[in-house]
Amino acid sequence: MEKSKKTLPIVLATALVSTPLMVTPPSAYAIDDLYVDPEDDTAGEESAYTIEFTLEKDLKKGDIIYIRFDKDFDIDSDIDEDDIDANVDIKKVAVSGRTIEITVDEAVDAGEDISIDIDSGITNPDDEDTYIVSVKTSRETWEDYEVDIYDDSSSSGKSSEFDVSINRTTEGDTAKYELGPIKLKDKLTKGDWVTVYFPDEDMLPSKISTDDVDINEYEPDDVRISGKKVELKVPSKAAGSKSLTITFYEAAGIENPDADDDYVIEVKWDGTTYKSEKFEIKRSSSSSTSGSGDFSITLSDSGVGARSSYTFEADFGSKKLNSDSDVIIEFPSADMVPGYLNPSDFSINGKTPRKVAPSGNKIYLTTPYSFTSSSKVKVDISYDAWLTNPKTAGSYQLKMTVDGKTITSKPFTISGTSVTPAPTPTPNPAPAAGTPAQVNNSTSTITLTNTAVGKPTGVNIAIKGVTMPLYKQRDFIEIVFPAGYRVPAYIAPANVTVNGVAANFVAVRGQNVLVYPAQDIPAGGAANVVIGAGANIINPSVKNAYSISVFTSEEKGLLFARAVGVGMPAPAQNPATPQPQPQPQPAVTVPANAALFKLNTPSFTLHGKSYPLQAAPYLANGSTTMVPAQFFKEALALTTIWNNNTVTIVSGTNQIKLTVGAKTARVGGKEVTLPAPVVLKNNMPMIPIRFVTDSLGYKVGWDAKTSSVYVYR
Predict the structure, then answer these.
(1) Which of 135, 126, 104, 106 has its CA nearest to residue 37?
(2) pTM confidence score
(3) How far is CA 37 from the centre of its chain?
(4) 486 Cβ neighbours under 8 A, 6+ residues apart
(5) pLDDT tens-digit profile of 411-468?
(6) Which residues is 222 bridged to in the sheet?
(7) In 3D, which of 33, 34, 271 has the Cα closest to residue 133?
(8) pLDDT at 339
(9) Structural contact between residues 479 and 512, judged by C-beta atoms closer than 8 angstroms
(10) In the chain, what are the helix, strand and coil shares in percent, each to the nearest 5?
(11) Are residues 257 and 319 in contact, defined by beta-carbon separation less than 8 angstroms?
(12) Which phi and psi (to 5°) does residue 385 adopt?
């Protein structure tokens, strides 16, 4: 459940149905693998706290996570959502005595790991002792965890230092790490968890086999990785010793930090943190300096301000770009990068990226699921991407980042004294160039097609005139919805028109909807934007007046804002030109051989007939559509074998193997990362559909007429 990143794997428009909080009887279940870690375990000090555990029962939207501190802790009653970070969406935070109540704003499946960071508001007890922190949920009973608090004289629970031995000390190298021996306060016990904290999470692979690490020369019973920590389960043969030595062999895949510096490693066991001596990582003799650079840039046009293609290739050495991973390209200035980028205008090692996202002067390229892992990364950006050179002549450099390692290019020269005109679409009528047009948007309006609370609505925006010209496919109109509105992560262009023509593209950034017109709009020209109800924008659930704002990519500030009434008569607006009427949307032709399904509906449709599914498809992490393994067998006629632990899907010579609970899969002989882990629902494995369709050459679409996803080949 990463908060991380939002992808657009499938065109979806889905309303989230808000359900009331249900009071349930006490459950026999308790959360599992509870871990509580104070950032500062000194008596009397304010400290941040990390709470981690695994759910044994599903959490529903609106359920509560309770965190209760022992009686000697001082808990600030003002702790709120701003003081807490979590890997689950939070609706609200309340404090009752020494208990922090966190109401979740999404459903979370049993077996998922929950991580909560409380950044402030907790003060440790004044006396050194062992204290209890307890955690439960609305559907599970209390689980306790012992936290040791130390006074200043006991060094805050930190023991004496231990040695770190590394066979390779060059930055970025994969190395063998030997930690210890560490003198413990008590004997190791079978089943204990020893936690190793590395300086940087980028040092760690996604998983480590028990074969590749030893505790006192014996394999641990289990290995878990989360962020920058590795947890090792003590085996019976290593138990009974008050000395601890941990060895990570090269095969474990731990890489040295990417910067030459001094580092430390911490080991935590039984409430005590042991800190290593400093160890040095040295700069590679082949490392680049900021002035030299490691790779060359090829441009189709090196003129000042010219539109140009870009080609470059870099070798990241020990770092590799993997499937479903990002390569970040940093350009000299943000005005080189257009607001909308099409993945088809880019290639990474000859493959089209799965996603392209601009952010200021950076472009994030996400590799496809079928990408072959490589340390050599070649990027081609076509002329059609509309990248433009810097506006001033001079010497410039690009930066490229893979897996945390950044390489700077060799300087490339931009020459000329004036901007080379970039070929632009011939406007009709021609957009006015030069000085802004004088427009008056006091009579511009915004209206809703449905003002009911919590219901989908269309939005009609009548713009009297834009100050600056907007060019099709390049510039955009931005509509900003206030907090309370629910805006989907994706809106199909067919659901939006500008002056009666379907939009060229629609991007969603949080509460902001960016509409790219399919025609030029001249300076001073009117723009009637119609967002249909099929876009699935949901009104707030509270009756009130809400202000919607309108900007464009070429305006220096707000174009105008208007209040709209939800659950009440619309606030008075200045009279305007006649309101735009919703335009007929182009019909989507669903292929005859396509299988269709709807989210949260346990069935699919094929050739006009409906067939049952053992579990309903659903949306995970707000962006990944999960379908039952049964769908691939019965709807797509693929050879599919599954049980409660594994799934195998075969298409011709292609074979995909997945494991329940894992976020990795094997396609052929290659291991790839999934956008969401495989989970079990109603004894049926649920699988990210886009991963399978991309791997096997199927296509996915959205039928707005029936609110269905369709899959075909």
Answers:
(1) 135
(2) 0.30
(3) 25
(4) 15, 16, 537, 538
(5) 888 887 544 333 333 333 444 444 566 788 888 899 999 999 999 999 999 999 988 8
(6) 233
(7) 34
(8) 64
(9) yes
(10) 5, 40, 50
(11) no
(12) -75, -15
